[in-house]
Amino acid sequence: MTPTARNVPALLQGLREGEFTGTVRVSGSPGGTIHLRDGLVGAIETPGAPSATSVLLTPGRIGDAAWLAACAAEPDADRLGGYLVAAGLIGAAELEVVCTAAVFDGAFAMALSPVGGWETGEREPTLLTTPGVEPRHLTEETTRRMASPAGSGRTPGELARLRPRLAADDGSVGVGVGAPGAGAAPRVHRGGAWLPQRYRELLGGVNGRRTPRDLAFALGRGVYPVLLDLVRLEALGLVLWGAGAVTGDRPSTAPRVTPGSPVATGSAPAAGPLPRRRPGGTSPAADRGEKGAL
User: Fold this and answer.
1) Which domain holds residue 207?
2) Is 115 within 8 Å of 280 (Cβ atoms)?
3) Residues with Cβ < 8 Å from 86, sequence gap 6 or more?
4) Residue 272 within a domain
5) Are residues 177 and 138 in the same domain?
6) What's the rounded Cα separation, in Å, for the pair 273 and 177?
7) How many CB atoms lie within 10 A of CB 37?
8) Residue 92 confidence (pLDDT) above 70
C-alpha cells in the first residue's frame, strides 16, 4: 500500500489519523525507515544518523554481552526496551530520552536531502520510544532544526557536507572565549579541562576527514547535537570548517557501534534479533519537489 500524499509529513499525519501500525520506507539519500505504532512514530532508522541502539552500544552504555543476552531473552524487539529496564541495564527515563532523541535526530538527518518516494509496509520489530511521537510534533521540531544554527551563516545541509578540522595542527589552539586567565589569549591543549567533556570528546574525533555524520556515529551521539557543538567550537576558535564532500563521493562509513562489536555490521546476532537498519530503497525515485521536513 502506498497512500497518496503531497509529502512525508502529510503522509504521516494521515497515517496517524488512521492509527496505522507498520513501516514507511522512504527512498533518497540517505532515506530510511519510519516505524509507526497506532499512528505514532516509535523509531526512525536511517544511514544518516545513529539509531537508539547505536547510541546505547557505541559509548558502552550497555555492554555487548548484556545486549546480546537481552536480545536472546526477548526476541521481539518491540518489547526489548521493557526488558532492558526490568533487567536493570538502564533506567526507564534514560531509555525514553535516548529513544525519543533518536527519532528526532533520524527525522532531521533524512530531511537534509530531498525525498525520492515512499511506500508503507508491515510492522517490523525494533527498539521503540513509547508510546511514540506525534507526527505533527516531529514535523514542527524538524522544521525548527533545519533553520541555520545561530552564528554559523550556513544551513544544516551545507554544514553536514563539510569536514571540520582542528584550528591548529600542533594539538593546541589559541582561544580567548571561556578559557582561564586574562590578557592575551592563552595556548591551551585541545582537551583542556575548561572544556565540557562532550567538547573534548568531539575534538578528539575531528581530523579534517570526518563529516558531522561520521563523528556522530563514532561517538554514539546525534547528528544535530554534533552539528551544534561544532558551530560552538568554531566560535571558540577550536575548529575550522573544511572542504565539503565531492559530489559523487561514496557515503562515509564511520562505524555505527563500537569497533569489534558483534553488531558492528548491522546484522542480527545468532543469540537473538537486533533491530535492523533498512535503507529506504536501492533506486530512489526521481525528486518530485516534495522536500518538506519530516
Assistant:
1) 162-240
2) no
3) none
4) no
5) no
6) 48
7) 19
8) yes
Q: Give the total number of structural domains in the chain.
A: 2
Query: CA-CA distance, 175 to 202, in Å (whole number)?
Result: 17
Same-domain check for residues 51 and 129? yes
Q: Are residues 185 and 134 in the same domain?
A: no
Instruction: Give 252's contacts (C-beta < 8 A, 6+ positions apart).
Output: 210, 211, 213, 214, 245
Residue 51 lies in a domain: yes
* Distance, CA of 267 to CA of 273 (rounded, Å): 9
The alpha carbons of the chain give a radius of gyration, in whole angstroms, of 20
Q: Which helix (H) or strand (E) holds 78?
A: none
Of the residues 240, 256, 273, the one at which a domain ends: 240
Biggest alpha carbon distance in the chain?
66
Domain match, 135 and 174 both: no
Q: Can you give the pLDDT at residue 128?
A: 96
On whether residue 290 sits in a domain, the answer given is: no
Q: Which of 18-32, 95-109, 145-159, 258-272 has the lowest mean pLDDT?
A: 258-272
- Of residues 243 and 188, more confidently modeled: 243
pLDDT digits (tens, 9 = 90+) for 5-38: 889 999 999 999 999 999 999 998 899 999 999 9
For residue 235, being part of any structural domain is answered with yes
Question: Mean pLDDT throughout 223-231?
Answer: 96
**Distance in angstroms (rounded) separating the CA atoms of residues 56 and 221:** 9
Torsion sign (Cα): 98, 99, 102, 107: negative
Residues 11 and 2: their CA atoms lie apart, in Å, by 10
